[in-house]
Amino acid sequence: MLTVDFSRFPLAPGDRVLDLGCGAGRHAFECYRRGAQVVALDQNGEEIREVAKWFAAMEEAGEAPAGASATAMEGDALNLPFPDDSFDVVIISEVMEHIPDDKGVLAEMVRVLRPGGRIAVTVPRYGPEKVCWALSDAYHEVEGGHIRIYRGDELLGKMREAGLEPYGTHHAHGLHSPYWWLKCAFGVDNDKALPVQAYHKLLVWDIMKKPLATRLAERALNPVIGKSFVVYATKPHLPEPAAAEPAVAEASAGEANESAAGAAEPAAAAPAKARKSAQGAKRTASKAPAKSGAKPTSKASAKPASKPSAGAAK
């Protein structure tokens, strides 16, 4: 019995999947059949050992395609033993209503989910769950039992605060709500009550045979009394730093080259101008007639008027 609808939550062969709080492993088994690389994690060691046995049996029976893998392990949802961005897909089904620090769990799931990855969260729906709480204290006042009832907008808000982007919701298991109301009314641990036994047989028949009558009935009941509320979301990609536009970069480089050329041109032209001036002076001197009685220039007048400054020397 799957709560996640894989027609709305696509899974590709080779996807790395974390089934967090896997319980008996129903979603982990389905992901394994679809060719994923699955890690099923739960704090209940006894359930994890059973899941590991089923994984081995599925492999032996050839139920999983080539390339698929499956691992069952104990772990803490608030301290996941995986690096950042380890998984393409994370599923957490009927778990968050048990955990006091649900924001901490969401933060850990977002941490291990890669950017662009997908996450499915399912919790008991507010209306049917409220009826169960009203009918029986034993239903929720037990160790490890339900400690909160989520409203749909509350769960969506917490997921957005954690950095996720929800993209779809629906309700599931409309046939199962009446069963749990009967359980709460006759005693959660009382499986011998005739109404409870009769309804349980109906559910087993539905799960095993999937007759059209019950499929249509559940489809009609899901929006009204569906037992579970399901949310699908993605982890957005981080924004990339803005790169300089090529045209702007080329223009800047061109301006720099022009400036450098302009600065080099006077320096290159200076010696040529000096040579032309010297040649002109020689021609003038050779053409001018010598004056009689002219005295040679004195040594004092040949000296520069002043010493060149340090800046000029450089």
TrEMBL record:
<keyword id="KW-0808">Transferase</keyword>
<dbReference type="GO" id="GO:0008757">
    <property type="term" value="F:S-adenosylmethionine-dependent methyltransferase activity"/>
</dbReference>
<feature type="region of interest" description="Disordered">
    <location>
        <begin position="243"/>
        <end position="314"/>
    </location>
</feature>
<protein>
    <submittedName>
        <fullName>Methyltransferase</fullName>
    </submittedName>
</protein>
<feature type="domain" description="Methyltransferase type 11">
    <location>
        <begin position="18"/>
        <end position="120"/>
    </location>
</feature>
<dbReference type="GO" id="GO:0032259">
    <property type="term" value="P:methylation"/>
</dbReference>
<keyword id="KW-0489">Methyltransferase</keyword>
<dbReference type="InterPro" id="IPR013216">
    <property type="entry name" value="Methyltransf_11"/>
</dbReference>
<dbReference type="InterPro" id="IPR029063">
    <property type="entry name" value="SAM-dependent_MTases_sf"/>
</dbReference>
<dbReference type="Pfam" id="PF08241">
    <property type="entry name" value="Methyltransf_11"/>
</dbReference>
